[in-house]
TrEMBL record:
SUPFAM superfamilies: FKBP-like. It catalyses: [protein]-peptidylproline (omega=180) = [protein]-peptidylproline (omega=0). GO terms for molecular function: peptidyl-prolyl cis-trans isomerase activity. InterPro entries: FKBP-type_PPIase, PPIase_dom_sf, PPIase_FKBP_dom. The lineage of its organism: Eukaryota, Sar, Stramenopiles, Bigyra, Labyrinthulomycetes. This is peptidylprolyl isomerase. Keywords: Isomerase, Rotamase. The keyword Isomerase applies.
C-alpha cells in the first residue's frame, strides 16, 4: 500500500482500480496535478514523471503508457507507448467516431459497437473537412470531442440541389414503392438524392441532393486507433473493401473484367476520370497491358460484385512523367465496382 500526501490531503493507494476511480486532481494555486494512471504493474507515485503538471493550458511531455490530459476535451485521453507519432498528410488512419445531432440526440454514426473503424488517408479529401482537420496532428489513443459547424460537416444547404423531376423518369416497379424519405440514385449526375415529396396529380417528384444533416452543427467524438505512416501506406497497391463481393470469383490472367470506377488524385481528391460520368462501364483484359500496372495488380484482389477503394502508388501508375491530366509522381485512388468477369478477351 502506498501513501501519498500533498498539501493537507492524503490518499491511500491500494490498487490500480482505486487510482482510476477515486484519485482526483489537486488544485495548488495556478497548477493542477494529476495522478499517473499507468496500469503497468509498478506505480511509482514518488517519481516526478508520475505526474503531469499543467500550468494554464500547457501540458508537459506525456508519460508513455499513461492516460494523458487532452487540452481540447479537458478530459483524460488514452495514450500508449510510442504515441508521440502524430498523423501527417499521406498517413492512413483508422478512427472510431460517434456523430450526434445535439438538438434531437439522434446518433448518426457510431462505430465502436460494431468494432469497425473508419479508415482513410489523411490529406486526400476522402472524408468531411472536420474529420481530416481534427485527425491531423493527433496521436494514437487521443480522443477529440466537440461541436463541428456545418461548413466542416455535411455542408450548408444548397437550394440548387433541390429540384423537380417527372414521375415517369422512375421505372414502374419503383413508382409503386416510391415514398417521401427514400434515397434514390440519380442517373447522369453520379449522385443520390432524398425524395422530399410526390405529386401524383402533376406527375412530379421533388428530390433533394443535400445531405440530410446539411446546415446543422453536429457533436463529434473521434478516437484515433492506429496510424500507418505515409511511406508504408503507399508501398504497393492496396485495396480496401467497401462492399464485399462473392468472395470466390477473382479475375485471372487473360480474363476480361468489366468495372465502374472513379479515379481521383490522392493529393487533393480531384476526379480525373470516371466511367459513371460517361454513363457506361469500362472493360479491359488482365495482363494485356492496356491499363496502368497498378489497376491490373489491384483488380485481381477483388471478387465479382465487390466495391472497393484501390490505392495506387505513382510507380504503378504514371510515374515521374505523368500525362496531360495526371501530375508527375502522383499517387492515385480508384473507387471500383467489379461488374463482370469473363474467361475470354476481346
Amino acid at each position: 500500500m502506498l501513501s501519498l500526501t500533498i498539501g493537507l490531503r492524503a490518499f491511500r493507494i491500494e490498487s490500480v482500480a482505486q487510482v482510476r476511480s477515486s484519485f482526483r486532481p489537486l488544485r495548488l494555486k495556478n497548477y493542477r496535478i494529476y495522478g499517473c494512471r499507468n496500469q503497468q504493474r509498478n506505480l511509482y507515485f514518488s517519481h516526478p514523471s508520475a505526474f503531469f503538471l499543467i500550468r494554464k493550458k500547457l501540458l508537459t511531455k506525456p508519460h508513455p503508457g499513461c492516460e494523458t490530459w487532452c487540452r481540447t476535451t479537458r478530459n483524460f485521453c488514452k495514450a500508449s507507448v510510442g504515441s508521440e507519432i502524430r498523423v501527417k498528410r499521406g498517413d492512413r488512419v483508422n478512427v472510431h467516431m460517434k456523430v450526434q445531432d445535439p438538438e434531437t440526440g439522434t446518433v448518426i454514426v457510431e462505430t465502436k459497437p460494431d468494432g469497425e473503424t473508419v479508415s482513410f488517408v489523411a490529406g486526400q479529401g476522402q472524408v468531411i473537412p472536420a474529420l481530416e482537420r481534427i485527425c491531423l496532428g493527433m496521436t494514437i489513443g487521443e480522443v477529440w470531442t466537440g461541436t463541428v459547424k456545418p461548413e466542416e460537416a455535411f455542408g450548408v444547404r444548397d437550394r440548387s440541389q433541390i429540384y423537380s423531376v417527372s414521375l415517369d423518369s422512375f421505372d414502374d416497379e419503383l413508382k409503386l414503392s416510391l415514398s417521401a424519405g427514400m434515397v434514390v440514385a440519380v442517373e447522369g449526375r453520379n449522385s443520390v438524392a432524398r425524395v422530399i415529396s410526390i405529386n401524383k396529380e402533376k406527375g412530379t417528384v421533388i428530390l433533394d441532393e443535400n445531405h440530410e444533416y446539411a446546415s446543422k452543427s453536429l457533436d463529434f467524438n473521434i478516437e484515433l486507433v492506429s496510424i500507418e505512416p505515409a511511406k508504408s501506406a503507399w508501398s504497393g497497391v492496396q485495396v480496401e473493401t467497401i462492399s464485399p463481393g462473392d468472395g470466390q470469383t477473382f479475375p485471372a490472367f487473360g480474363n476480361r473484367v468489366t468495372v465502374h470506377y472513379t479515379g481521383t488524385l490522392a493529393s487533393n481528391g480531384k476526379v480525373f476520370d470516371s466511367s459513371y460520368s460517361r454513363g457506361e462501364p469500362f472493360g479491359f483484359t488482365v495482363g494485356a497491358g492496356r491499363v496502368i500496372r497498378g489497376l491490373e495488380n489491384g483488380i485481381i484482389k477483388m471478387s465479382l460484385g465487390e466495391k472497393g477503394r484501390m490505392y495506387i502508388p505513382s510507380e504503378f501508375a504514371y510515374g515521374a512523367i505523368g500525362n496531360d491530366i495526371i501530375p508527375p509522381d502522383a499517387n492515385l485512388v480508384f473507387d471500383i465496382e467489379v461488374l463482370e468477369i469473363s474467361n475470354h478477351s476481346r
